[in-house]
Amino acid sequence: MAEGKKAAHDIWQFGAAANLPAGPPAATAAGLKARPDQTGEAVAEGGAAPPLAYRMAPRTLEEVQGQQEIIAPGKLLWRMIKADRLSSMIFFGPPGTGKTSLARVIAAATRLPFQKLNAVTAGVADIKRVITETQNSLLNPAGKTILFIDEIHRFNKAQQDALLPYVEDGTLILIGATTENPYFEVNKALLSRSTVFKLEPLTPADITQLLLRAVHDPERGYGKLPLTVTQPALDFLSDQANGDARRALNALELGVRSTQADASGQIVIDLPQAQDSLQRRGLRFDAKGEDHYDTISAFIKSMRGSDPDAAVYYLARALEGGEDIEFLARRIVICASEDVGMANPQALVVAEAMYQAVCQIGLPEARILLSQATVMVACSPKSNASYLAINQALEIVRNTPTPEIPMHLRNAPVPAMQALQYGVGYKYPHDYPGHYVDQAYLRPELADAVFYHPGQTGSEERI
């Protein structure tokens, strides 16, 4: 019984190393005896069927759907896998785009030992174990191991540093997978010794092909079932998955498992069943990851570029992804000053009022306040003159000798200080016509400095 349970879980075809399978099996893969369950799915003896998304993972490079920018024939990764001449690499991209699938393909193709660690549960001790086994000439005559680390961004600095010398000398060929931007999350020394491959979200056409493959595959999918999936259902699942193949396949599996056969014995997945199986569109947004930075960058640039429609869209995307509303409010306040500035001074007033109200009211009503201020900033005339002025002034302050404050501008709180010329000679502007008088406010060595250059739009045109 224990052996049967183990077989149900160890369902990848094992490569040269004993602890990382190379790819999802067909129902007759070595070490896995299969029988059909009531849905026609392959079921390991003593266990339930693995998830459809797992069973349908590609076994060869030719079965990988999408990502032609990096795996098309002749491309670098294609050549590395086909020649079994691998070097350290990192796959990064959104969930469901094939990072782990590519690792499985490599595991099936390589002659080198291949081991897997998950950064969520593994530690330095696991890394040392892999290294010890690799350096044992009896266990590993090649003296090298391909080590796949899933979620590598979750390794801390010490754990990443433990890999570095062995990646550098070639003992370990590292394959890392991450949903986070490795340029922010992975040790720079480790990154410099790896080739980074960015995986893009799959297109709806790619996901449709994967769904059709699952419907018709008699061994790993539903090819032995009297199953019909209508075109509207396929289109809906492919579109709503938002580039995530796993999400689409999970929805298909849920639909098949939860739909009863009709009077003719057919299982029909039409649009209502598909909509019920995939309740809402998959949203690619992580309030603490790269999507956070990319979405906020697009939000700010759309306001700066005077496109209220794009700005409101990215605002909605951030809100739907769970972004902190106070963070969004702060960014709008900053944009109102940095990018609108004196071209429309009221934009900062509205933005600041919005910020205070958002903090007091909260969601869901705060979305209205955020939208109003976003549209206000986006539609305002633009000037970054104040922003440039302070930056240029700071540059002078930091890089030139600090002159004395002119005596006539200094504070003289007691009469005795006037004897030392503090405040002597100051001209009070309100005593002069137009409330202005020509006098120097900077030392002679800075007399020609001009930091504020009014723009030609909005209120600044009058300035």
Question: How would you portray this structure in words?
Answer:
The chain has helices at 2-9, 52-55, 68-71, 76-83, 99-109, 124-135, 157-168, 182-185, 188-192, 204-216, 231-240, 245-258, 271-277, 290-304, 308-320, 325-340, 346-361, 366-379, 385-399, 415-418, and strands at residues 34-36, 42-44, 89-92, 114-118, 145-150, 172-178, 195-198, 227-229, 267-269. It has 463 residues and is α/β, with parallel strands linked by helices. It folds into four domains: 57-198, P-loop containing nucleotide triphosphate hydrolases (Rossmann fold, 3-Layer(aba) Sandwich); 204-277, Helicase, Ruva Protein, domain 3; 290-379, Zinc Finger, Delta Prime, domain 3 (Up-down Bundle); 397-461, no CATH class. A five-stranded parallel beta sheet has the order 4-5-6-3-7, sandwiched between helices. β1 (34-36) and β2 (42-44) form a beta hairpin. α10 packs across α11.
